[in-house]
Amino acid sequence: MVKEKNKFTLWLLAWPIFVELLLQLLLGAVDTLMVSRVSDDAVAVVGLSNQLFQSMMILFMTVASGAGILIAQKIGAKQNESARTVAIMAVTVSAVIGSVLSVILYMEARPLANLFHLEERLLPLAETYISIVGSGMVLTALTAALSTVIRNTGNTKGPMITAIGMNVVHIVFNYGFIYGELGFPQLGLTGVAISTLVSRLLATCLLLFMFVSAFERRMEWRDLIVFNRKLFGDILKIGWPLGVNMSSWVLTQLTIYTFLATMGAKELAARTYMNTLESICFMLGYSIALAVQIQIAHLYGAGNIKEAYKSGYRGTWIGLGLVGFNSIILFLIGKSFLGFFTSDADIIKLGLSCLVLTLILQPGRMLNMGFGNALSAVGDTRYNMIISLFSMWGVAAGLSYVLGLHMGWGLAGIYVAMICDEYLRGILVVIRWRQQKYLRRAEARDKSAAVSGSSEAAGMGMHA
Fold first, then answer.
1. Taking every pair of C-alpha atoms in the chain, what is the biggest distance, in angstroms?
2. Cα separation, 158 vs 394, whole angstroms
3. Which PANTHER family does the record match to this protein (predicted)?
4. Is residue 458 in some structural domain?
């Protein structure tokens, strides 16, 4: 009992998540840094292509995210077999969806690249990158599902170890393919795509090894056909609003990147560089938010309602402190960081113009993420979906067009729109968490079950 309780403390959950996410981010940063040695055009292509991949990932992340929350709740409620069944379905369904997406991305790379109104010279690069990296979407689906499942059992170190290995392999292969070193052919952006594919394959193999023994009863080949309609319904009940929420975010980001592409390749490259720097700044806060979600889901499943409520505040305040500090550091050293990625004075100038706005943006993002994840942990995912649809499209995308394109504010206008979106959603989720709607409902249900159990026990005693 003590071991299980300690496994779900905020610190033990958060630090491996932070290391894992940081290393995954470094994977992207190394990509950006090394690709920048090819050309700024290549950087723009990678940035836009990754937005496309993220939009498609929603299809399997809907299942994985809903399953992750349900697994933590079931483990908290001591229903380990149900948690195991949920995990199996999450992995198998994600693999099927990922396989379909792999075929589509490989076969339709050029038409998909044309959707984003890229400059003509960028289209061949985009087609190559999308077809190679996209063909491995099944690996992305498996790593996402496996990491989510393993992490929500309380084992956050496993995905962290995988991230370390994935980064080492990716950096070595990137170096070899881009510069023609270590016996590798010099393949430029094509080599980066191949490197991404190989590192994900190895990560999938390692995560599958961990998945086999993630639960009390080991996985077997025959488990691949396990399907429980009721539990899958529970996954979708939690997951589909999360999927719509994630879809809304990714599609609005794609829309915003399309606006940037209209502005020009320099604006697109500057946003890609700034996105990398902002992600580094936000990573500690994001790891806290994910850990809080796992902890609250576990507490909620165990019936510790008051502690679950307090955990939402505690985690978010810690995250706000960390993100605020990191934002100040980023502001102070932003120019030096941008200089690592590009020597283009115009791109650096565009990035620097957004540093103050980034300082304002990050706390709002943490507020939204912290309490938003707390709501998701107790199953209150529809509320997040509704406010996201309104705010992301009406504020983030809508204001980006008005300020960035129509009024000519450019990249700065897009940042102002994102700030308004994050703070609006942040305020709304704080209000919702304070209302404790789902927590009070669970508390009432537990009390009712306790009274019913006492009545049955008394009746059996009288009968005896």
1. 88
2. 39
3. MULTIDRUG AND TOXIN EFFLUX PROTEIN MATE FAMILY, VIRULENCE FACTOR MVIN
4. no
DSSP string, 300-339: HHHT-HHHHHHHHHHHHHHHHHHHHHHHHHHHHHHHHHHH
Cα–Cα distance, 28 to 199 (Å, whole number): 12
In a domain, 178, yes or no: yes
Yes or no: say if 411 and 263 are a contact pair by the CB < 8 Å rule. yes
Closest CA to 135 of 100, 111, 166, 165: 100
Query: Quick one: tokens of 427?
Result: 């305020």
- Distance separating alpha carbons of residues 30 and 177, to the nearest angstrom: 13
Do the beta carbons of residue 294 and residue 8 sit within 8 Å? Answer: yes
Percent of the chain as helix, strand, coil, to the nearest 5: 90, 0, 10
CA atoms of 209 and 66, how far apart (whole Å): 23
Q: What is the dihedral of CA 306, 311, 314, 315, to 10 degrees?
A: -170
Region of residue 154 (phi > 0: left; psi between -120 and 50: alpha; otherwise: beta)? left
- Tell me the pLDDT tens digit for each residue of 84-105: 999 999 999 999 999 999 999 9
Q: What is the pLDDT of residues 237-263, one digit of tens each?
A: 999 999 888 888 878 887 888 888 888
pTM for the full model?
0.81
Task: Supply the DSSP symbol for 217.
Answer: S
* Counted domains in the chain: 1
CB 319 within 8 A of CB 284: yes
Structural domain span for residue 305: 2-445
- Give the CB-side neighbour count of residue 232, counting CA atoms within 13 A: 11
Hey, how many other C-beta atoms are within 10 angstroms of the C-beta on 389?
A: 15
Q: Is residue 462 part of a domain?
A: no
